[in-house]
Amino acid sequence: MSRLLIVNPFASGVDEHRLASVRAALPENVETRLTTAAGEATEIVRSASDVDAIYVFGGDGTFNEVLNGVELDVPLGFIPGGGTSVLPRALGLPRNPARAAQRLARGTTRRIGLGRVNGRRFGFSAGIGLDAELVRKVDELGRSPDGRRPGDVAFMRVASSTLWAQRGRFDERLEVEGTGRAAFVLVANCTPYTYAGTVALDLVPGADFEAGLAFVAPVSLRARDLPRVLVRGAHGSGLKDENTLAARDLDRIVVRCDEPLPLQVDGEDAGDVLEAVYEAERDAVTVLV
After folding, report:
1. pLDDT at 242
2. Which end of the chain has fewer beta carbons closer than 10 Å to its terminal beta carbon, N or C?
3. What is the overall mean pLDDT for the chain?
4. Does the 3-107 domain belong in CATH 3.30.450.40?
5. How many Cβ atoms sit within 10 Å of the Cβ of residue 104?
6. CATH 2.10.110.10: does it fit domain 120-282?
């Protein structure tokens, strides 16, 4: 059997020792391909043929590239090698890459749905506004000499400075078609929406890999609301309240912005958008769990 392992050597949790332990845990006859630039994982997957499984060791950006490149109905195994690695953790895999690889080597599979926004697939989330602004500002900090992105501490500093710059106020800037106006929108394909270290943040209750897309869109948000939001997210009740638009199990969501706003897709900056068309791609891919 032919198997492929795609590795992003610049991911924050990937190094020679961890890669060796991952390779040792996977089945035999696995070809390893290291990426050298953004977008390369997509091209590697598109050119792959006659493979029985594709494993990916990297972060959520690399996982997203693979999801946007895969054309065969081949099992995909996501091994956490990024700072957050939301997708494999949401699938129930261990955070330790070697233990995750051992699980994947068993060959147990599951079918899951994906989301699309303006034609680009996403595995777990694609938000417009606040969370995308934070992703962009963290990226603007640059990378370390070894190519790795800043971690959770840098993200918290950026979040604090963003709140200060906004005077702690986030008011209506977009409209969710058929639902109403809001300050920002979080669209999810699964639970949780993200992680803060070891803590899962369920910001979009009701999102599920086996269902359509779910969203929450706060009409407004104040700095004083954030501690409550984080506590509720950690306890699984998320942002949904009387001041928040929300729906679940949707096949299509259309968002129109008052001005170009940043979009993030699986934690990657996808540029500014005036309109975003989200579509659910149900029963899209086979994953190893």
Report:
1. 67
2. N
3. 89
4. no
5. 26
6. no
- How confident is the model over 176-203, as a mean pLDDT? 93
Q: How confident is the model at residue 199 (pLDDT cuts 50, 70, 90)?
A: confident
Secondary structure tally for the chain: helices H, strands E: 8, 18
Residue that is written with structure tokens 């493979």 in the block: 51
> Which residue in this structure is represented by tokens 């065969």?
72
Half-sphere exposure of 160 (CA within 13 A, CB side): 6
- Mean pLDDT value across residues 46-71: 95
Q: Is the pLDDT of residue 150 over 80?
A: no
Q: Are 190 and 208 in contact (CB under 8 A)?
A: yes
Q: Where are the domains of the chain?
A: 3-107, 120-282
Does the structure show a pLDDT above 90 at 11? yes
**How many Å apart are CA 60 and CA 82, to the nearest integer?**
7
Query: Can you state the percent helix, strand and coil of the chain, rounding each to 5?
Result: 25, 35, 35
Start-to-end CA distance of the chain, whole Å, equals 19
User: For tokens 């170009």, what's the residue?
Assistant: 260
Q: Which two tokens stand for residue 13?
A: 């949790």
Q: Which residue type, as a one-letter code, is found at position 205?
A: P
